[in-house]
Amino acid sequence: MIAADSPLQTLGAAVRDERRAAQLTQTQLAELAGCSDRTLRDIERGAGSPSIGTVVAVLDALGLGLEVTA
């Protein structure tokens, strides 16, 4: 089980918040990103194991970027 404050859940919450701010449904965003509704739901929950390419596609569809820190 993933901790409530895990990076995956933080990412998922940001995606969900931005999707809602853009007034998009999960289905609409999934279509824009080229992924399934199920995959998008998993990303928003911080669950599953989507590919990095899928995550980047979702972020790109929302006008967001991904920053990697060491």
UniProtKB/TrEMBL annotation:
InterPro entries: Cro/C1-type_HTH, Lambda_DNA-bd_dom_sf. Residues 15-66 form the HTH cro/C1-type domain. PROSITE patterns: HTH_CROC1. Transmembrane segments: none annotated. It comes from the Bacteria. GO terms for molecular function: DNA binding. This is HTH cro/C1-type domain-containing protein.
